[in-house]
Amino acid sequence: MAIVKRPKSISAICVIAIILVLLAFPMLFTPSIKRMGDFIPMILGIIITLQFVSLIGIWHMKRWGVQLFVIMFFTRMITFMFLELYTFQFYFNIFYSIIFLVFFFIHYKEMDSNL
Amino acid sequence: MFLLLLKESILFAWQALVSNKLRTFLSLLGITIGIFAIITVFTVVDSLERNIRSSVQSLGEDVVFIMKWPWTFGPDYPWWKYMSRPVPEFNEVSEIMQRTKSIEAIGFKVSSRKIVKHRNNIIENANLSGWSYGFDKVKSFDLSDGRYFTESEANNGYHVCLIGDAIVQALFPYNEYPIGKTIKIAGKNCKVIGIFKKEGESMLGSSMDNQVVIPYHFARLFIDVRSENSEPLIAVKAKNGIINEQLKDELTGIMRSVRGLKPMADDNFALNETNLLSKNFDSLFDIVGIAGAIIGGFSILVGGFGIANIMFVSVRERTNLIGIQKSLGAKNYFILTQFLFEAVFLSLIGGIIGLLLIYLLTLVLGGVIDMEITLTRSNIILGLTVSVLIGVISGFIPAYGASQLDPVEAIRTN
Questions:
Q1: CB contact, 8 Å: B404 with chain A?
Q2: B48 in contact with A at a CB cutoff of 8 Å?
Q3: What is the rounded CA–CA span in Å between residue B235 and residue B54?
Q4: Contact A52 B393 (CB under 8 A)
Q5: Is B343:B395 a contact under the CB 8 Å cutoff?
Q6: Which end of chain A, N or C, is less surrounded by CB atoms within 10 Å?
Q7: The total number of structural domains that make up chain B
């Protein structure tokens, strides 16, 4: 199994992104989200969890991590737009995700394509 | 094939949990406490909110109340302006009726606290309300027995009354039939003609259970109806198809002309709606909910760290076994699924125990306090979802680490 050394920039981004994802977790319990429907916290929770999983993949320098991160970025945006959640968090998420994606794609070729 | 793998993963996870009972119990305790904390807060807040909403609805969603004080609160509340306002008066009811086109029903009400007595049974400070004839059409209530005042009884101030369930229990403790009996209200004889259906405790204190209702013209014999202490109000209900905003516009014009206000003068009355009360409570519950979300959310995350820790130990203990499984052909995703299932199981069991504890708590509280507290479907879904997701978040790192182990090195590990 090929062991790819993780660049420091990816390490730093992963730590920051994991903290941001975990901090987003209590958002599931806010009254405004709960009021949208019984299953909305579940949908947002799955998105947050899969974003976390994608970051673990990127930490291990796996391409599937970047691919899952891109999918979850768009899924999250579409879900927020569908729910009309144009909050600060929505724009902040676009801002930092794009910066992270630039770094991820710079190192994409160095990443392992296996599971 | 997939189902077989799934079944095998579940069995492996189950065996691992059963073989370390104490460790399993201690690690799922974190999630149990987290789920218990957050869902208890939501259950109590939801129950309070539901109770207040039903109390507000019983006041009438399509009713506008003409009062001295507005139902708005906040830091910029100019109470000194409202202090000098006059209170609504009974004669304004007929003035409004003569000038309006959009009103279906109108009623006047005053309130006070008086001694109510039947033989040796006395209630000090009973809630007493004096209603005009039309008030029954703007206030929603049900009678378990008897009837409401006739127009003649109301307009001539007959000594008749309707009483709530708690008043019946206090004045007629030996299952006497109250209808037709005479009770004393503030020293005056009064015949009971109706009993309100039991409503239970109301958060706004608007339950009919503790009320004694008499005609307004009887009430004014011993209640100072021009005093602010008697909380006089005019309740107005719009005709079908007329929204509250239209009604309020019309009432503003009518009340200004009735009170002879100059064009530039401020209104000296408040038009209150029940949705003003709801809005005030909504913001209060939002604050409590957000506080609960932050505290509960982080306590669940801490519970997740406990599970992650125990999963790392579990992977370490079974490294040798993982090596054997991989050398016999087990795929990476099988190892990953196996440990992930173990974490999710652990977390889910913790969450279910937390929810069961909350259910027991609601049963106990339901017996102690006179308010319905229920564990709702949305809170159960939320509790189970969060348990599963925390299981995935806390179990993924150790499970992925286990799946990436080299079989040769893993077998060598002691």
A1: yes
A2: no
A3: 18
A4: yes
A5: yes
A6: N
A7: 2
Provide the residue type at B358 as one letter.
I
β-strand partners of B182: B191
User: Based on the domain organization, do B315 and B372 belong to the same domain?
Assistant: yes
Please report the residues numbered 25 through 84 in chain A whose beta carbons come closer than 8 angstroms to any beta carbon of chain B.
25-32, 34, 38-39, 41-42, 45-46, 48-49, 52-53, 56, 60
Query: Cβ neighbours of residue B237 under 8 Å, at least 6 residues apart?
Result: B60, B62, B63, B64, B103, B104, B105, B106, B137, B138
Q: Which of A92, A97, A89, A84 is nearest to A55 (CA)?
A: A97
Q: Which of B53-62, B265-274, B304-313 has the lowest mean pLDDT?
A: B53-62
Residues from chain A contacting residue B397 (CB–CB below 8 Å): 56
pLDDT in tens, A68-95: 999 999 999 999 888 888 888 888 889 9
Query: Are B164 and B257 part of one and the same domain?
Result: yes
Note the ipTM here: 0.89
Residues B264 and B286 in one domain: no
* Distance in angstroms between the alpha carbons of the first and the last residue of chain B: 32
Q: If we measure between CA atoms, which residue out of B284, B282, B293, B287 comes closest to residue B40?
A: B293
Residue B200 is part of which domain span? 86-268
| Domains in chain A: boundaries | 8-110
Which of B382, B388, B404, B406 should one mutate to test binding to chain A, selecting the residue with the greatest count of A CBs within 10 A? B382
- Hey, are the CB atoms on B301 and A25 less than 8 Å from each other? yes
